[in-house]
Amino acid sequence: MDFRSYPTAELALEPGPSVLVGPNGQGKTNLVEAIGYVATLGSHRVATDAPLVRAGAARAVVRTAIVQDARELLVELEIVPGKANRARLNRSPVARPREVLGALRTVLFAPEDLALVRGDPSERRRFIDELLVARSPRYAGVRSDYDRVLKQRNALLKTSAFARRSAARAGGEGGAGDLRTLDAWDGHLATLGSELLAGRFEALAALAPYVEKAYDAVSSGKGRARVSYRSSLATDEESRAPAELVADREVIAAQLLDALARVRGQEVERGTTLVGPHRDDLVLQLGDLPAKGYASHGESWSYALALRLASYDLLCADGGEPVLILDDVFAELDTQRRERLAELVSKAEQVLVTAAVAQDVPEALHGARFDVAGGEVRHVR
Asked: pTM higher than 0.70 for the full model?
C-alpha cells in the first residue's frame, strides 16, 4: 500500500518463473523492489526510504506472505519517512524492524549491478555486507552499531580539526582540541570493526570458489575470475595487495587499534577516520588483471552476473533456497549471455523476471506472466 507508484497492489506468485512484462516506467521494478525491501530493509535503487513512499502519502506498507516447508510467515513493514519504521511478524509487533531479517532471502540482479565491477569500493562493500547479513542476520546490528560509532568518532575528529584551525587563524598554537575520549572511541571501533571484518572474511572465503565457478559457467570458460579482500590495515603501499583472510576477532581488533594509533596524527589533521571496514574494498580480477579498468563491457556484465549467481549458490548451500530476482537484465545482455543465464537459473525454486517486452525473456524462463501497465498488475497465465 502506497509503495512507490502503487496506491495498492497485490501479487500472488507461484513456484518457478514469474515474468512481469510492461513498458518502462509502469512499475515493474517497484514490485520487485518491495520484495527485496522485505529481505534486506533497503532498496537497490535509492539510499534512503523516503522515495519509497508514494507522493502525497504519509507512509507505505508492504505485506509479504512467505511459504516454506508448508509453513506460512507473514511479514509486515511500515515505512514512515522521518520516523522509525515498524514491523510485525505474524501480526505481532517486533522491537526493531531488523528482527524480520532472515524471514525472506533474495538475490537480486539488476542493471545497477554493473557498478559492482566498474564502480566505487562502496558498491562492493555493500555487496559483501548484504551477503553477510543474508547468511547471518545478526550482522545487521553489527553494521548499524559500527556506523554509529564511526559517525560519532568522525564528529569528534572533525570538531577537533575545526578547533585547531580556528586557533591557528587566531594566532594561537593550534592545539588539537579536546580528544580525551578518542581512546574510548578507538576501543569501540576496534571491537565492532573486528566483528564486521571477521564476518566479511568468512563470507568471502566461502563465496570465492562459487564466483570462479559461476564466471566459468556464464562466460563458457573464457577467463578465470578471482575475488579477494583489500584492507585499510595496510602498513605501507606494498600491502595494498589483497589481505590475508584471518577471521580471528581478537587479532583483527589488535590490528585495528595499532592502525588507528599509527594514523592518529593524520586523522586529527584531516578530521576523519582513515582505517577500518568502511575504507576497504573487494579486489575483482580476471586472470592476473583487475576487472575494473581492464574487463570489456561484456566481461564486466559476466562478472556482475557471476557475483550474484555465486551469492545464490552460497545461500542455497547454507540451507534454504532464496528467491532469485532478475530485474530488467535481459535487455542489457547479448543473445549468448541471455540464453546462458536462463539455462543457469531456470531450475531455481522461484525466479522473478521483469522485462519491457516478453520477447526479451528466453523460453526457459517462460512461466506465469503478469502484465504491468497503468498502475495495474494483471495475471495473464
From this structure: yes
